[in-house]
TrEMBL record:
<dbReference type="InterPro" id="IPR050282">
    <property type="entry name" value="Cycloisomerase_2"/>
</dbReference>
<dbReference type="InterPro" id="IPR015943">
    <property type="entry name" value="WD40/YVTN_repeat-like_dom_sf"/>
</dbReference>
<dbReference type="InterPro" id="IPR019405">
    <property type="entry name" value="Lactonase_7-beta_prop"/>
</dbReference>
<dbReference type="Pfam" id="PF10282">
    <property type="entry name" value="Lactonase"/>
</dbReference>
<protein>
    <submittedName>
        <fullName>Lactonase family protein</fullName>
    </submittedName>
</protein>
<dbReference type="InterPro" id="IPR011048">
    <property type="entry name" value="Haem_d1_sf"/>
</dbReference>
<comment type="similarity">
    <text>Belongs to the cycloisomerase 2 family.</text>
</comment>
Length: 360
């Protein structure tokens, strides 16, 4: 019996007339990656999400200007959404909405898929869109603007909202702001379109929070800090507010070069946490204590390429796919079930400037 292929989508840095979106199939029986489709027409689709049914692909267009529907120049980036044919898996024509900020770099959907959020890295803002029953985003209804700086004059001269994540119940939105060294928290109200700020938790000065992940079982939240290459654990108090705990390095003690963290992922069974290091060019692996949530370093694995901006696990937790942006490669690893360590399969593909990996 042939196992069902995993569907992989890659978003990349690209000009509008270049390939920006690539569809790949991962064949579990052979451990192969097979490229099945390529699409252009969108500038810098550097972060992707898909609805659970697999019928709509959402992408940010990480830019500071675009041509609107009337042919006029407009400032800021865009949110794109594409219908996906359930049988052929081909993308249909995209629809576009402004993000009202420069260089949108991340997006998230609520579990009920009724709200979508986008972070504008150079726009100091977060925008929320209601999602229509046909899965297309409606006009943006909420916009939050951040103010503040950090001690790193080059990277923290202004707010830089780097990512957005909804809580499992869709009632809260967590925003990692690299420029402010804060995780901002917004809460959904009773009225349609009602979202308000409810919490702000600080990281170590100069940490540069980039992405976060919610543990599927133990209630802890983990933030990966780009600028000081650490992961910080947070718990929640009785009121649901974040309380910062310890931070651990994502780099081996013997490493003395420059490196910056990028992505953070928790295994579906909650036993392991993974972080990518750009510079050290590795995936750092941590064991997770099931009760305390404390991380224990378990090793580092080379991504066999340069600048692993993004990676992901397949939903079954058996495979890890890494995107090496500066060496133009997508590399496949099999997860060793006992240690959690990724093992190179020998399979890789060439994709220009890959920035995001989505697996189904």
């Amino acid at each position: 019996m042939v196992s069902k292929a995993h569907e992989i989508w890659i978003g990349a840095y690209s000009a509008k007339n270049e390939v920006g979106l690539t569809r790949i199939e991962l064949l579990p029986d052979t451990g192969e990656l097979v490229k099945t489709a390529e699409y252009g027409g969108i500038e810098n689709p550097t972060f992707l999400r898909m609805n659970r049914a697999g019928t709509r692909l959402y992408a940010v267009s990480e830019a500071d200007a675009y041509i609107d529907a009337d042919g006029d120049p407009a400032e800021g980036g865009q949110l794109a959404s594409f219908p996906v044919d359930p049988q052929t898996r081909k993308l249909g024509p995209g629809s576009y909405a402004p993000t009202h900020g420069n260089h949108p770099c991340h997006l998230s959907l609520t579990s009920s898929e009724d709200w979508l959020a986008v972070s504008n890295y150079n726009g100091a803002s977060v925008v929320l869109y209601p999602v229509n029953p046909d899965t297309r985003p409606g006009p943006p209804m909420v916009r939050f603007r951040h103010t503040g700086t950090g001690p790193n004059a080059e990277r923290q001269e202004a707010p830089h909202p780097h990512s957005v994540f909804f809580s499992e119940d869709g009632r809260r939105l967590y925003v990692c702001d690299l420029g402010m060294d804060k995780v901002m928290v917004y809460e959904r109200g009773q009225e349609q379109g009602e979202w308000t700020a409810c919490d702000a938790s600080s990281l170590e000065p100069g940490a540069g929070p980039r992405h976060l992940i919610l543990h599927p079982a133990n209630g802890y939240l983990y933030v990966v800090n780009e600028l000081n290459s650490t992961v910080t654990r947070f718990s929640k108090n009785a009121e649901g507010q974040l309380e910062r705990k310890e931070s651990v390095s994502t780099l081996p003690g013997s490493f003395g070069g420059d490196s910056w963290c990028a992505e953070i992922v928790v295994s579906p069974d909650g036993r392991f946490l993974y972080v990518s290091n750009r510079g050290h060019d590795s995936i750092a692996v941590f064991g997770i204590d099931g009760t305390t949530g404390v991380l224990t370093p378990a090793g580092h694995v080379s991504t066999r390429g340069h600048w692993p901006r993004n990676f992901t696990l397949t939903p079954d937790g058996q495979w890890l796919i890494a995107a090496n942006e500066h060496s133009d490669t997508i590399v496949l690893f099999r997860i060793e079930p006992q240690s959690g360590l990724p093992v190179f399969t020998g399979s890789e593909l060439t994709v220009s400037k890959p920035a995001c990996v989505l697996a189904r």
